[in-house]
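2024-03-11 09:14:02 INFO worker-7 job=invfold-0412 stage=load source=structure_tokens
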């Protein structure tokens, strides 16, 4: 299956390939994954040793058992705010 890794800022494709999992694509291209959007990626037991993941969005990614030795994880925090409307005391109404 064709998979792509995109930047978190512009959505531009930085790596793509025919692989079974996103983890395989990461292993193939681990030299430069700066600013990659890997949110919610299944990276279970992925070999990410030495990978440059600086600025990457890893929120929700499964990193259980992943090898992160010597990986650059600086600046990988992705913050966002969601506005939630207040509800009134009456059912179905919002303020």
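2024-03-11 09:14:09 INFO worker-7 stage=emit residues=95
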């Amino acid at each position: 299956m064709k998979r792509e890794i995109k930047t978190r800022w512009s959505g531009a494709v930085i790596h793509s390939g025919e692989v079974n999992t996103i983890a395989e694509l990461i292993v193939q291209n681990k030299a430069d994954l700066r600013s990659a959007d890997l949110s919610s990626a299944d990276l279970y037991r992925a070999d990410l040793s030495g990978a440059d993941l600086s600025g990457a969005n890893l929120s929700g990614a499964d990193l259980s058992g992943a090898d992160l030795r010597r990986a650059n994880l600086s600046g990988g925090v992705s913050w966002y705010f969601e506005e939630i409307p207040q509800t009134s005391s009456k059912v179905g109404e919002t303020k």
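2024-03-11 09:14:09 INFO worker-7 stage=report msg="The chain has a mean pLDDT of 77."
2024-03-11 09:14:10 INFO worker-7 job finished
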